[in-house]
């Protein structure tokens, strides 16, 4: 069975609308995150799930607008079952990283080849994204807590 055949169906988010927020990368560069427009749960509800904190190395180069299924080991550790990294149509940002996550939700940090990283906090399954600028946009690490 291939990894693609094992990809779980993404539960439908409570909203199909994407809410965008301005953000700042680790080195202070402007970026923008997008996630389903669903209220963040209260802090005392926590993030219920079976996943532990993680840090993994990946090689996600700039590609076209097609989804790439993640390998089983990355899917299990990160709850990310597919991604795409491509040029952005947003006039303020050169690139966009899009991810689809399962029911385990993380506060993600995506590191690129320049050493910068981009934070994306998630609390609902579905598609999420980060618009950013970089001289070397290949994503080389993912951390989650």
If you had to describe this structure to a student in words, what would you say it looks like?
The structure is a single chain. It contains 2 helices and 10 strands. The chain has 145 residues and is mostly beta strands. Strands 1-2-9-6-5-4 form a 6-stranded antiparallel beta sheet. Strands 3-10-7-8 form a 4-stranded antiparallel beta sheet, covered by helices on one side. A hairpin with a 4-residue loop joins strand 7 and strand 8. The longest helix is centred in the middle third of the chain and has 7 residues.
Strand order of the largest sheet: 1-2-9-6-5-4
Rg result: 14 Å
Helix share bin: under 10%
Tally of strands: 10
What spatial form do the alpha-carbon principal axes imply? globular
Query: Which parts are unreliable, with pLDDT below 50 for 5 consecutive residues or more?
Result: 1-5, 10-15
Tell me the number of helical segments per DSSP (H or I, 4 or more residues long): 2
Distance between the termini: 30 Å
The succession of helices and strands, N to C, reads: HEEEEHEEEEEE
| Helix-and-strand structural type | mainly beta
Question: What's the pLDDT, averaged over the residues?
Answer: 87
Largest sheet: 6 strands, antiparallel
Percent strand: 35-45%
Please give the structural blueprint.
Layout: H1 3-6, E1 18-24, E2 30-36, E3 54-60, E4 68-69, H2 72-78, E5 80-87, E6 95-101, E7 107-112, E8 117-121, E9 126-132, E10 139-144
Antiparallel strand pairs: 1-2, 2-9, 3-10, 4-5, 5-6, 6-9, 7-8, 7-10
């Amino acid at each position: 069975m291939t990894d693609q055949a094992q990809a779980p169906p993404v539960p439908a988010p409570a909203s199909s609308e994407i809410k965008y927020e301005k953000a700042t990368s680790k080195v202070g560069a402007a970026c923008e995150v997008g996630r389903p427009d669903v209220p963040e749960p209260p802090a005392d509800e926590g993030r219920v799930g079976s996943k532990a904190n993680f840090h993994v190395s990946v090689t996600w180069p700039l590609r076209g607008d097609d989804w790439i299924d993640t390998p089983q080991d990355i899917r299990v550790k990160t709850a990310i079952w597919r991604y795409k990294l491509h040029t952005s149509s947003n006039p303020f940002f050169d690139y966009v990283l899009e991810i689809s996550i399962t029911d385990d939700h993380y506060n993600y940090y995506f590191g690129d080849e320049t050493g910068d990283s981009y934070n994306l906090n998630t609390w609902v399954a579905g598609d999420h994204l980060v618009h950013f600028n970089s001289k070397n946009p290949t994503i080389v690490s993912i951390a989650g807590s």
